[in-house]
Amino acid sequence: MAREGTEEDDTAPAGHPGRGVLTLVSTPIGNLGDFSDRAAATLAEADLILCEDTRTSARLLTARGIATRTEPLHDHNEQQRIPALIGMLERGRRIAVISDAGTPLLSDPGFRLARAAITAGIAMTAVPGPNAAITALTLSGLPPHPFMFSGFLPPRPAARREVLARLRAAEQAGLSATLIWHEAPHRLGEMLADLADIFGTDRPAAVARELTKRFEEVRRGPVGTLAAWYAENRARGEITVLLGPPAEDDTGADDLDDRLRAALATLSVKDAASLVAGAINLPRRTVYARALELARETGPEAADP
Predict the structure, then answer these.
(1) Which intervals hold domain Tetrapyrrole methylase (predicted)?
(2) Residue 36 phi/psi, 5° resolution?
(3) What is the CATH number of domain 133-243?
């Protein structure tokens, strides 16, 4: 019997006879030396490589002498391409999916195709490898688990703050995890300022930039300090932002209840929720639901909105 980790174990799932295999292949996030031999062999043996951008992937494939045919798979064409791709897999073709950098499906196309392959009973496997979020987490000095990776935040300020406010509300309901996002360089300063405003300036944070590349940098510190730094110093390259979990003595939930009880002493549930939501940067619906609970504790009359 082969032991775990030996070459005999290094086989892809056989799948159904006559059917192909869909393989999700991780690619370097910057340093071409991080491309594994298994990943290169998988791409070389595939019948088709689906790329987020064929021009970006051409550099990697050329460097390893891989001549497999490539086609684009991105957010704008993935859904319409699925029937034909599933048909190819059902006829026994081997298809590999790669992103411009890192692990496919994470902030990249491919999820809808993977779900369709599972539904169709197509064998699916992965060649693991580089991932910017995990690499940044290990270098950040922040608690490694639990963590929550949320891809990119909305680019518009109002939508971004709404998403962050919901996460802060979740923390007040008990969530405690290191939070991870990717961000574009030109939005980094504003994003960090929103983090400081909503989560507090003293929360530990880190900004990881150009991971595995020549100018790799990880800047650590309170999120308010990082926000001030990047307000004056424009960042460049690929960026991952991490925010540490709330302190064990975080009083956010108690503060919300105290503010609501004070407001409910003179205001309706609706008006109290609006006042407090605006003061502590939480979604009005979330605050209203908590205000309604507190009002009901004092009697049905107080709960009347």
Answers:
(1) 22-226
(2) -75, 155
(3) 3.30.950.10
Same fold, 17-130 and 133-243: no
CA angle 245, 247, 252 (to 5 degrees): 95
Show pLDDT as tens, one digit a residue, over the chain (305 residues).
444 444 444 454 544 556 799 999 999 999 999 999 999 999 999 999 999 999 999 999 999 999 999 999 998 999 999 999 999 999 999 999 999 999 999 888 899 999 999 999 999 999 999 999 999 999 999 999 999 999 999 999 999 998 998 898 888 777 899 999 999 999 999 999 999 999 999 999 999 999 999 999 999 999 999 999 999 999 999 999 999 999 886 656 667 777 888 888 888 888 888 888 777 667 777 788 888 888 887 765 544 54
Half-sphere exposure of 122 (CA within 13 A, CB side): 27
State the amino acid at position 103 in one-letter form. T
The whole-model pTM stands at 0.80
**Rg of the chain over all Cα atoms, to the nearest angstrom:** 24
The Cα–Cα gap between 47 and 26 comes to: 17
Q: Which CATH architecture has domain 17-130?
A: 3-Layer(aba) Sandwich (3.40)
Domain boundaries, the chain: 17-130, 133-243, 252-297
In this structure, what token pair is assigned to residue 57? 């992937």
Contact present, 186 and 220 (Cβ < 8 Å): no
Widest Cα–Cα separation across the chain: 75
Strands 239-243 and 48-51: unpaired
